[in-house]
Specification:
Layout (H helix, E strand, L loop, with lengths): L1 H12 L3 H10 L4 E3 L1 H4 L15 H4 L3 E5 L4 H10 L5 H5 L12 E4 L7 H14 L8 E2 L2 E2 L2 E9 L5 E4 L21 E8 L7 E4 L11 E4 L6 E5 L3 E4 L13 E9 L16 E2 L24 H4 L4 E4 L2 E3 L3 E3 L3
Parallel strand pairs: 3-14
Antiparallel strand pairs: 1-17, 2-11, 2-15, 3-6, 4-5, 6-13, 7-12, 8-11, 8-13, 9-10, 9-12, 10-16
Protein name: 2OG-Fe(II) oxygenase
Length: 323
């Protein structure tokens, strides 16, 4: 299934649409992303709107720059480099490895570089047009769920919704989709040729989305959007294996108190508590990047957080399969 799906993407990218259609029909697909999306490099870009434009103010997506200090980005890049023990400890990339994420209460004092980054991003969101998104019917955002990805420069990531994974494993009678208030992506390292992140105004309960936004990767860029929205990463142009930097991203989902920490070994499921030597829960995870007394914050470096407005928007998202 995965190989057929990836082959269809390559066929669309090389102009062999009919072969791609045949393959997707065999997979039972009814729709596929339109050429305006899949061939994004040749799609005319929408003009960049000023952040005060009403179309931007009401957009479900925001982009920021300079949210994290350079020293913090460098520490995260080093701590989560492809050769880091973190990936091996988590079995990352192995087909049998489960999804893993970590739970961080925003009221806790940050003890790792990840937690320092989370606090900086939270401060930026609170001071932006995203602030109303941080208030939910269940109460304010008080929890950050985080995970990281490292992939080849040209690798895609399937379209998906961010959900509370623990609720999906409680049996059919208790099955419930529960989304974060806000989802966000921090680009830590990325090649210029990497594919963009695609966010679609589509939620599980509705029909196909009508609008989509392409966000190109750039070191230090923060992407934030409503947590109910469909999103993924489009494939980039093929690049020689091992050439150039990998795509390293920190993903932070922002939750009210509806997300609870899960028990079990860290790295073997969602919303686990990070182990520390000197704090809350047991032995340290040796590979997790630690914070430093010399770590400067964006305020100390006097780098203004800048909202870049709305990214490129594409309105024709899907094509139907004939026959």
């Amino acid at each position: 299934m995965d190989s057929a799906y990836l082959l269809a993407l390559q066929l669309f990218g090389s102009g062999q649409d009919e072969l791609a259609h045949q393959l997707l029909r065999r997979l039972g697909c009814t729709y596929h992303l339109s050429p305006l999306v899949l061939l994004y490099q040749s799609t005319p870009r929408a003009e960049i709107r000023h952040p005060a434009d009403p179309a931007v103010v009401h957009s479900p997506i925001r982009i920021f720059k300079h949210v994290l200090a350079g020293s913090l980005i460098s520490a995260l890049q080093a701590g989560f480099a492809p050769e880091s023990a973190f990936w091996q400890e988590h079995g990352y990339g192995q087909r049998t490895a489960p999804f893993f994420s970590y739970f961080y209460d925003l009221g806790w004092e940050p003890q790792t570089t990840i937690e320092a980054a989370i606090q900086a991003v939270h401060t930026a969101l609170q001071a932006s047009a995203c602030a109303p998104w941080l208030m939910t019917p269940e109460g304010p955002v008080v929890v950050a769920e985080w995970w990281v990805h490292v992939r080849e420069a040209d690798a895609p990531h399937q379209l998906h919704f961010d959900v509370d994974e623990s609720r999906l494993r409680q049996g059919r009678n208790k099955y419930q989709l529960c989304h974060p208030a806000v989802s966000s992506v921090v680009f830590l390292s990325c090649p210029e040729t990497g594919g963009p992140t695609l966010v679609i105004d589509q939620i599980p309960q509705d029909d196909l989305g009508q609008r989509g936004w392409l966000v190109s990767p750039e070191v230090g860029k923060l992407l934030a959007f409503r947590g109910t929205l469909l999103h993924g990463v489009l494939p980039g142009p093929p690049s020689p294996a091992g050439m150039g930097p990998s795509r390293l991203t920190l993903i932070i989902a922002w939750w009210s108190a509806v997300l609870q920490p899960q028990t079990g070994p860290p790295g073997l499921g969602s919303a686990r508590i990070v182990p520390y030597t000197n704090a809350r829960h047991g032995p340290e995870m040796s590979s997790l990047p630690r914070s430093s007394m010399h770590m400067t914050t964006p305020t100390e470096e006097r780098i203004p957080v800048r909202t870049s407005g709305s990214p490129d928007e594409i309105r024709k998202l899907y094509d139907a399969h004939a026959g």
